[in-house]
Each structure stands twice: as C-alpha cells, then as structure tokens.
Write a structure and sequence with these properties.
The complex is a heterodimer of chains A (about 140) and B (about 800).
Chain A (H helix, E strand, L loop, with lengths): L3 E7 L2 E6 L3 E6 L13 E7 L2 E7 H4 L12 E7 L2 E6 L2 E7 L13 H6 E7 L2 E6 L1 H5 L1 H6 L1
Parallel strand pairs in A: 2-10, 5-7
Antiparallel strand pairs in A: 1-2, 1-8, 3-6, 4-5, 6-7, 9-10
Chain B lengths: L1 H27 L4 H21 L2 H18 L7 H22 L9 H8 L9 H20 L20 H28 L3 H24 L1 E3 L1 H4 L2 H12 L3 E6 L4 E3 H22 L3 H6 L6 E10 L2 E8 L6 H10 L5 H5 L3 H5 L23 H10 L3 E7 L3 E9 L4 E9 L2 E6 L3 E6 L6 E5 L2 E6 L2 E7 H4 L14 E6 L5 E6 L1 E9 L5 H4 L4 E6 L5 E5 L1 H7 L11 E2 L2 H9 L1 E7 L5 E5 L3 E8 L3 E4 L2 E6 L2 E6 L10 E8 L4 E6 L1 E8 L12 E7 L2 E6 L1 H8 L9 E4 L5 H13 L2 E3 L8 E7 L10 E8 L10 E2 L3 H16 L1
Parallel strand pairs in B: 2-4, 9-18, 13-15, 25-27, 31-32, 31-33, 33-34, 34-35
Antiparallel strand pairs in B: 1-3, 4-5, 5-7, 6-7, 8-9, 8-16, 10-14, 11-12, 12-13, 13-19, 14-15, 17-18, 20-21, 20-28, 22-26, 23-24, 24-25, 26-27, 29-30
Helix pairs in contact in B: 1-2, 1-4, 1-6, 2-3, 3-4, 3-5, 4-5, 4-6, 7-8, 10-11, 11-16
Classes of the chains: A mainly beta (about 140), B alpha+beta (about 800).
Amino acid sequence: MNDLLLMCTIAGRRAAIPAVAVQSVIEVENITPIPGTPDFICGLTALRSQALTVIDSSLALGIDQPCVSRDQRAAVVEVEGHLYAIMVDEAHDVGEARSEPVAVPGGFGDGWQRAAKGMVETDGGPALLVDIPQLVSGPIAAAA
Amino acid sequence: MDELLADFVAETREMLEQSGSELVAWEADPSDKARIDTIFRFVHTVKGNCGFFDFPRLEKLSHAAEDALAECRAGRREPDSALVTAVLAIIDRISEMTDAIEADEDLGEGGDDALIAALNPDGEVEVQSDIEISDLETRSADTAKADDGNDTQKAVPRQGVQRSIRLPVDLLDEVMKGVSDMVLARNDLARRLREAGEQPTIDGPFERLSAILADVRTSITRMRMQRLEHLFSSLPRLVRDLSNELGKQVLVDFEGSEVELDREMIEMVRDPLTHIIRNAIDHGVETPAQRLKSGKREIGMLKFAARQSGNQISLVITDDGGGINVEKVAAKALANGIYSRSELDAMSEGQKQNLIFEPGLSTAEEVSSVSGRGVGMDVVRSNIERVGGSIEVTSKPGEGTSFHLKLPLTLSIIAALTVGSGDQRYAIPRSYVEEIVFGNSSHVEFAQAGDRRLVTFRDKRVPCLSLGEVLGSETNDNCEWESKTLILVRLASDDVFALAVDRVFDHEDVVVKPIAPAIMETRLYAGTTLLDDGRPMMLIDLPSIAQMRGMAGGVRTKAAPVEREKEVEAKKAVPVMLFAGLDGRHRAVRLELVRRIDTISRDAIDIEGDRAQAIIDGEILTLAGHDTGDLPEERCRLLRLSDGENELVYAVREVLDAADVTDDVVPSEADRNIEGVTLIGGKPIPLLDGHAVFSRYKAARKVDHTLTCRIPSDSEWARTILEPLVSAAGYRIASDEDEGEADLAIALAENTDGAGGVARETIRLRPDPEDSGDDTIYRYDRDGLLAALKRIRTGRAA
C-alpha cells in the first residue's frame, strides 16, 4: 500500500488526505461568508472563476476550535460535482502511506471517529486518514 | 423546405434507431402487441410525413405496412413470421430510401411492389430476410450500446451531405461553462488593464479578444437553442391519441413555432405541457354532442401560441372548451379543507380559477385514464417554477381556458437584482421583483401587528421581512426599517411581501452555478454566481424563504386591501401631489400634470427679469413657481409639469406626499394661479391651476398645434373605445378641465344635450347601423368615422 497522501495538521493532529482526490492546495484569500449556514462552512471563495465552498476542517469534525492557520492553506477537492476548499491548520508534504488504514481500539475520539477512515502509518509517524465526503458534509450530517 | 426535409430525415432515422430493438424483439415473438404498436406508430409517422413531402414510393411502402399492421392490431389477422419478415424488409427499404433522400440521390430501382406483395397473407416470401435482419440486429446492438454510454451518435450518413452532428448536452454545458468562465476571466483582465492605465499595444488586441469572446458566447448560446417546432411536432399526435381515447374531436393550431428556446428548457416543459394538454382535452373540451348543443363547432380547438419577449418566452395554450367551473373548484377546495368558506368568498374570480394549481384539487368527476390521476396542476406549476418560469390561468365559463406560461430563455442565466445586506451583496431573481420603494418615502407607512412588521403601500398592507434578519445578521428589534429599501416581491402564487435590504445596486444577468448540499440545506440560497471582480455572490431563494417564513400561504396572507370603501371612493378622487412651495406654504398639484421630480443644483437655474429657465439634462425648460419665495442655496427640487405637449418646471422647497382630493374644490376668485382650495387631511390646501400656470409661463417648446377633441366623459364606450381611436387619429382628448374651444366634439346621438363644451365642429354618432338620415355616423363605422376625423383635421390645418 503506497498511496500518496497529503500530510496536514487538522486541529493540532496529524492528518492525511488522499492525494488523488486533491486537485491543488491553495491559499484562500478572500472568503465571502454565507449567512445562515452551519459554522463549519466558512463561505465561498473563487478559484479561476469557479466558486469553492470553504470548509473549516476542524469545525467540520465537530471540534469547538476553528482552524488556526497562518497562511489559510486549503486542499481543493471535488465531491459530487461540487468543489470544496478544505482549510487545514497546516499543509505539509505529500507522503506515501506505509500501511492500510486501520482502526485503533478505543477509537480516535468523537469527531475523528466519524470523519476518519482509520490510522495510516507514514514516514513521519501515524496519521489519521480523512474521509473527504464525511468531512464536507459536516458534523451533523456525519452523525446521522 | 430544406430544413424541414433534414428534420424529416433525422426524425425517420431516429425512429429507425429506436425501433431497431423493437423489431428484433418482435421477430422473436410476432404476437407481441406492444411491439406491433411501436412499429405501427413508426410506419404511420413515416407515412404521414411522406405524404407531406411528396415521396409517393415511401408513402406507398409505409402505407402498405401500416395496413397490414392495422389488421393485426384490430385482431383480424394473426401476425406470423412471414409478416414480420415482410414488414422488416419494408422498414429496411425505408431506411435505404431515407439515406438516398439525404444524399439527394435517386431513390434506387423499383422492387417496391414485390415488398408490398410480400405483406399479403397469401403472398410468397421471397425477400432475403436473413441479411436484413442481421443488419438490423447489429444496428440495434449499436443503438443499445450508444444508449448505455449516453452518447447517441447518429449513424454516419453515407454521402456526408447532412452537416450536423449530435452532441451530448453535458458536453455543450461544459463548453458553455468554459465560455462563461472565459468571460469572467476577461472581466478580471479588463479591470486590471483599466487599473494599469492606457496601453495601446495591449488594449487593441484585448478589445479584439473581447469581441471574439462575445461572438463565441452568442454562438454557444445558440447551440443550446432549439426551435419550439421540435416540441410542437410531437403534440398533434398526442392530441389525436387523447381525443380518440376520450371520444372527442380536437384540432390543434400552432403559432410561433420558429421561436427558439434552450434545448433543456424544451425538455423541462414537455411534461407540464403534456399535462396541460391532457387536462384541456379531458376536462376542457366537451364531447361533440355537448358542443353542438351549446352552439359550438363540433370539433374543439387547442391553440398554442409562442412569443419571445425580451429574455422570456411566453407560451399560451388555449382551448375553446367549457372553461373552468369555478364553483366546482371552490367547492372542492372547501371540501378538501384547503380554504374556508369566508376565504373563498373573499377571492376574486381569477383567484378562484388559480385554485386549480393548489395541491389536491382535481375537478374531474371520474378519474379517467387520461387525467385526474393525482398528478395535479400543482405539480405542473412547481415544475414550471423550478425552471424559473411562471404559469397562470384565465378562463371564461363556456368559452374556454387559457394557460399562460412564461419561461426564461435559458436555464443557467437569469436576470437578477443585486442587493446589499450587511456588508455583502446578494442576487435576487428579477422575475419576482414587483417594485422597489424606499423605506423613508412618504407614501410608505409602517405598521406593527404583534411582532410582524407591515408596510402599507398603495393601500395594501404587506408583511415585511428583513433580509438581514432572514440571514441572521440582524434582528427585527434593531432593524431600522425606515433606512431600508423595500423590494416588493410577488411570488408566482400571487403572494406579496416586502423584503427589506440595505441597498439595491444593479440589474445584472448572472450565470448561476449550483451550490454545495450543505449550503443548500439552509434553504436560503438557490445558487451562486460570480461578480465581475471574481468574488462569489449568493442567489437568494425567494420562494423557499417565503415558505419558511409563512409568506406563501396562499390567500391567507394575501395582501389585504386596507379598506374596500376607500378604494371605491378613490376612484372618484383626484390624485394630487402635495408640496411645499418656496415660501414654505403647502400646495397641491394634480398628479396627472407631474411627469417627474427633478433635483438640480442652483447653478442650473437662470433668472433674468421676467425670464426664468432651468437646465435639466441639457434641456432648457421654463421655470415657474420661483416667484413665491427665495430659491434654496444649493440644490433645488423641481416638479416637471407637462400638459401633454409642453413641459415646464415648477420650483418647490419640498415634495411632501401624494394624496387624493375627495372633497370639493372651492374656487377662488382672488388668486388666479390656483384652481381653488380643497381640504386634504383636514387642512386647506390650494390646488395649483395647471391651465393658469401653462398659459402664464408659455412653455418653452411648442410642438405643432394638435387638434383637440371633446368626447362625452360620462360614457364608458366613449372613454374605452372611442378615445383610443380619436387619439390615434391625431387628436388630443380634451379633459373636462380644459376650458376654451375644442376643435371637435363627438357626441352620442342618444345624448341630446351635446358633449358639454364648446367646439367648432361636432360629429354625432348613432348606435344603430341603419342610416337614419340625420348626418350621424354609426358608432362602429370605423372608416366613416376616421374619414370624418381626417376631413376636419385637414380642413382645420389648411
């Protein structure tokens, strides 16, 4: 198993997003907020005249703290024809998975349990593999 | 004709493709009724089309096949494999001939008779069926494969004469999206170039690029367009089938089939349209016997008229049936508990007719196979609304029903109003916007009922919603309604509410893109669009918001007229505009005289001795009213008054309000500048005399003298029928206030007391066509009347 993973930090934890699904990593500049939407949706941003829905990965996991990001890095992914920018604390390198995602006895904690496919071993140590569709649908939908 | 022919070839080929698999299935089981029906329909359509195009050989072949199949359908003949083979051979020949027609070749040698003879039950089977069937099999396999891939490629024409290809709509969409993005990128570039200042070496090519892009965009849009013909062409068939089934006779008539509409839109309205047709034939058009009894033609008429107006298509479907039985609809609504008796009583006839769009109403007494299967007009309406259209119904008992559909030209571009709320911009579909008013405007009045804000506008109480509050950025408590701009929204269901926004920016055509499901869940937004500078903007979903906030509860929240009596009274009342003159005194002027209100700077006013003029938009206008007091120092409000031909401006300090004069105007002898004094809101207000103002200040621009005509003001006929005719003939209609001699008066013969005014000439009209020999003209003798009008006009002008 040597899938490429985008290594990043979400809510202070090491996480990995399958690199195949990531179109690009951008620095989100302007976000147009959308009133009335759940917290984890930060708003819309434009990328090459396409509108991306900006997701705060931390809030989307159901963690109370929003993303703390210096450079507003986000991974652009497409789910069911819609483009999303998943904001993370930090986006690192692309690395190789050294193992299949596995469950850990006792789980990963509330939010993580819902939106993580499991733990993968990488060169820099274990990371949680993010389930993108779960993440973009937010904590409420994921709980249902 | 060529285009029609190409359509015929394409249609035939399409049907060949579709019936390919049917043919094979039929081969396997010759007694399969459903297959026979399909193939019968095919040859029948070909036959009909051939007759139209004068292809006698094709017609003969298809006719023979149709006959044989009709026998089978009627049960007079058992379909056997011999018949199958013969029919297949004919269909194959039709296909060959179609190719030949397309390539503009001769239709090949004879041999048709042998094919036709093979259809005969006793005929010999001598056709090389094996080859044809295997041919058909491969073809049908191809078709099936193509269907799976959603990529139906048309069979390549043999000679490559027809230069058209079929494309999946997805691909078109993608190209369209690409072009839209290109436009946005261009806009962005344009902005940057502007910021960078003039650069001749770049600006030239950039402009060329812009022009090319605009062209491409138009072509792409056209690529998606299809003539309505394509929709209409399937309808006669549907109507025929339905009317046969129901034992009625219906003719169809089309108008405007050349109107073009987005392909996808055509597909979207196909079902609703089918439903309307079903209803019209089932419930609308009566049986021939009933029709004859009520003095109508035996054959009912179903009319389709399409028209493009701006970026909308209006489609009217009219039947000449019995009309909507309003009482029955109302009774049904009552029985189903949708409305209460009192609510129904309060409804107008039109509202009651529109009840048919309510869920759960079907007036058919019996559920027939055609309509009344629970899929009601409510579904039709919601489908039409989903694509951004609207539907209305009008009906006259005994005369028929019309459905008026309004459809946007394309699905993805909508006309929108951009508004501001909080620090952001939002788009609102313009089709819902009825009117825009400022909260601080004097004729807008706020009221409070419980926690609900109401606004009284044009004598109606309309519930208010604040966009800020809906979006959660502010609460109703800290909302300053007076500082808002109110957008009066009329939903398709005729419910009206006011949406308060901070600002209205602009009208814009926006390309709408879908939004993520999580945002969709808020039910506040219908999509997103990008502003010129590339920033996203949300499109507000008004119907959904209205529903969530209970604004769209049908008649329940219908904007209630404040007082009915007041409206009746208002009809008699004279609308006036209240203003404060330069001296600060309140005066009024007849609203009809006021064309608009201008605000100009003091510099644009030039007064010298007796001459006073104001410059507005490069036009010099006579100024009046400046002698009542000092002009304000900076900006000056002007009422622009018009008597129809001349204009002048009247300086005021402040425009106060619009009001209705219901009390008598008491004439004043002392002041010749006023008509009189009247009571408005209990205060005496002098009413400016338009005549005196215009005669005194002799307006600047004088158009040619128009002849005036007096018509009986008390006759409705004269006002509604005669007046337009007379004005069209070049006369100005003298109002009752107009003193002085009119050039002409028209009197009705039955009114002996004349037209109530002085006139140089008088035309008398009689109500009967018979010449009574008293120099009168029959009131509907249009030519005679126009001739008389012309005679007087030329006579006077000479």
